[in-house]
Amino acid sequence: MKTAFKVKCVDLSTAGVRVVVLNREDARDLDLKAMDRVELSTDGRQPVTCIVDLTDTFVPPGIVGLFKEAYTRGGLSDRDQVYITPKGKPTSLRYIKEKMAGKPHTEEEINGIIHDLMNEELSDVELTGWISSIYIRGLEKEETIALTKAIVASGTTLDLREKRVFDKHCIGGVAGNRTTMIVVPIIAAAGLTCPKTSSRAITSPAGTADTMEVLAPVNLNKDDIEEVVNKIGACIVWGGAVNLAAADDKLIRIRHPLSLDPRGMLLASIMAKKKAVGATDVIIDIPVGVGAKIKSPDEATILAKQFNALGASLGMNIHSLLTNGDHPIGLAVGPTIEARETLRILNGENVSPELIEKSVQLAGVLLEIGEKAAQGQGREMALNLIRSGKAGEKFRKMIEQQGGDGSIKVESIPIGEYDHTVVAQREGRIEQVNNRGISAVVRNAGAPRDKVAGMYLHVEEGDRVKKGQPLFTVYAKSERKIEQALEAYKQHEPIKFARIILQTLD
Amino acid sequence: MKTAFKVKCVDLSTAGVRVVVLNREDARDLDLKAMDRVELSTDGRQPVTCIVDLTDTFVPPGIVGLFKEAYTRGGLSDRDQVYITPKGKPTSLRYIKEKMAGKPHTEEEINGIIHDLMNEELSDVELTGWISSIYIRGLEKEETIALTKAIVASGTTLDLREKRVFDKHCIGGVAGNRTTMIVVPIIAAAGLTCPKTSSRAITSPAGTADTMEVLAPVNLNKDDIEEVVNKIGACIVWGGAVNLAAADDKLIRIRHPLSLDPRGMLLASIMAKKKAVGATDVIIDIPVGVGAKIKSPDEATILAKQFNALGASLGMNIHSLLTNGDHPIGLAVGPTIEARETLRILNGENVSPELIEKSVQLAGVLLEIGEKAAQGQGREMALNLIRSGKAGEKFRKMIEQQGGDGSIKVESIPIGEYDHTVVAQREGRIEQVNNRGISAVVRNAGAPRDKVAGMYLHVEEGDRVKKGQPLFTVYAKSERKIEQALEAYKQHEPIKFARIILQTLD
């Protein structure tokens, strides 16, 4: 039953499925309830599926409210005529109900759900039902493989000249852990191909993409990336600008409100992004520690094995590495500060020794896998590639090729105009530098949006400091943001001294 | 961190939790993602919790879009100043995650979730996570009891003079099954108290509330209901006008898109409504059959036992009755046609014999439970209460007391001005009269919104008919709706003849 309505445009966007607003009386006539589906059609255009929202007053009977996605796509304006036809539920909803009942998905079912997700045929509420059931029922290995493949197929894939492609991934959670920008130039200098896509900050003060963007554009599309990598062997770009593993972003959005992180979906999400760039050899950095995402070595070992097995099923060679995730790795935190630190390291300066050490160890593993270094010689080769200036030279070529200034000097990169240095109030030993607390301070200083906001740590865990000795300097673009950062420092106390008097007994 | 914004009012309502629309840049600064919570505050008013929606263009940075619920409650208009403060997740979200992980809810947790549901602290997506996990994990008996109590406590409860209160409930799905309007006057005529709340049509062409409304107002509030019942002993009103078991409506809305009907929630929903009116003795009519909700007697028996056990835990005396649900019970379908049929039956006319028989059997059970009839004598007593005119007299008093015209004549109740009678195209036996098909025809004639739309069936299953003999007459308020109904008749073929030639073999 096709019913004619006049359009009222609502200048509002909705993520996911398109929404139409109907008067409750019309909905009753059409036997429609809130969150039901309808087909919205116009004379001569492709019909689209929409989800019904109900109102008593926003539109009167006979008028349908269309959200931006619906009216722009149809080229519609106020008072245009459209037709609404009640529509049944998509088959994928049946698969979701079956998964709830405990039946593992077939590959075809997973493809169907991801297809409907991409075509905006499933509402947030329906997708939450799906992700909840995966969270509760789990995904078997075959389902995880199928999900990974479906996510890969949902987006674009890179087509590179070299068929052996190297990649690294860190599951995150450690501040200042900017190894990517050092590892990639090292292995590229040795001749390995590495089309690195990175994320922007989500909960941290800087993502690799935010930091690289201080030096060069990172919003490269598929063609740009292929051109840069075919020419230079490597790039560091923002994954969000190129439509790789497109379904993954939609799933992450739905997983957020209930913090649903079903293991199989997490694995599929990461591996799909690697598969989509054509990676054949991947190292996965799994930081383990109190402040990190993975708290215990046992937990990390299980995860590592799952990565390796899933990779093997997808024809990829995966090396999972458990790393120390207790405290920040670098001394620099914030996009600009980290970009400057990276350039310094690749210029051969001996700053942030822990960051250098972790980077050369990771790069070393890749050099050995890629048969550029003999077994056990990778770390040494990586260090030499930095010291010889070859890694730095490669990095400047990458910057140049991505559209930045390859000859940029560290000192010419502006950092926050305002700064404040916090000094030790007493003598003592630094017992802990807490990741989350450092992140909070730097975010309050304005990062990641203010690229110039950041922090330089002058001490590391275990250091013995004197009263009055600088602990860190925070940078921001206004006095107010400096104050805000110091407020966060007081609240989070990320730098903890070892206590001397542990308890007083009366 | 409290940030000032200027208001932009969005003349649009959202069911459930209030929504605020923020520009993506502001959201990034405040570390907010779509579907996060914020506190919306104004100078001097109680802050409210809202859920964040993001936009690139609808509002610029510094402006917050408020949906109707948010701006009317705060008495806000365009360009007013408000404050947005990121807010953590409510504790009830933790309970939901624990239920997902398989931990049964405590009573306190269920109370917490229902409290947050009623205060619009939980979004649709979060509630879907909860209902999905209940669907998968199930509810233990103790959880179901706690949920029922929490739903009762979420709304108002009736306070009647009589402490022994009788009620009936039908789990639905059978067309023309208007027993309530016959059973209630019968038992009230015998002196039993029955404050009957009914629903409007959801998928059927008429709910009991829609049918009763033809004769009397049904939108009575708590005080009205108490007055009518204390005076007359009974009423038949729309449950939606009185705030009984308020949480239930909200849960039903969320369960709809995925058709999630966790058994425990279904039981709690029904029993809470009975408990809220103060019912002590309840019969549950469970129609069983191909066209009904419950397909097999085994399934119905399990459900019946669950009703009885839950009732006992809540201090109620429950009698579940398995009834024949294969085909329509009455011959009249549609609000006005059913209202006229009810009056005729209570006037003592021998119409719709199956409906009369089912009504007196159900009423008989209640009369025996209420000790008005000796064991085995209930049906006979019920029939006598109709024949003597006492049930009819009581019904007219109920109509009068609810604000209708108690002296109304059947013939003076207008039915659809247009009608059409469909006749048999050949001689044969009626093999099936299908519930769903009949509903579809009558809804297409305009019911339940057009109260005058409906159908009168001239045949029942098993009848032998001659060519040209009337099968049914459909009524509507326009020629177009008659055509629409006949179209639906062709499509659904609800009246099926027994086939003569079953197969042709060549």
3D architecture notes:
- The structure is a homodimer of 506-residue chains.
- Chain A has 506 residues and is α/β, with parallel strands linked by helices.
- Chain A folds into 4 domains: 3-87, Barwin-like endoglucanases, CATH 2.40.40; 91-138, Transferase, Pyrimidine Nucleoside Phosphorylase, Chain A, domain 3, CATH 1.20.970; 166-402, Nucleoside phosphorylase/phosphoribosyltransferase catalytic domain (Pyrimidine Nucleoside Phosphorylase, Chain A, domain 2, 3-Layer(aba) Sandwich); 418-497, Aldehyde Oxidoreductase, domain 3.
- Helices cover 41% and strands 20% of the residues of chain A.
- Chain A has helices at 24-29, 68-74, 91-100, 107-118, 124-137, 141-153, 180-189, 208-212, 222-232, 246-255, 263-276, 297-313, 335-346, 353-369, 378-387, 390-402, 435-444, 479-492; strands at residues 3-10, 19-23, 37-41, 48-55, 63-67, 81-87, 166-170, 194-198, 234-238, 281-288, 317-324, 332-333, 418-423, 428-433, 454-457, 464-465, 470-476, 495-497.
- The first copy, chain A, has a 6-stranded mixed beta barrel with strand order 1-5-2-4-3-6. The first copy, chain A, has a 4-stranded antiparallel beta sheet with strand order 12-15-17-13, with helices on both faces.
- In chain A, strand 3 (37-41) and strand 4 form a beta hairpin.
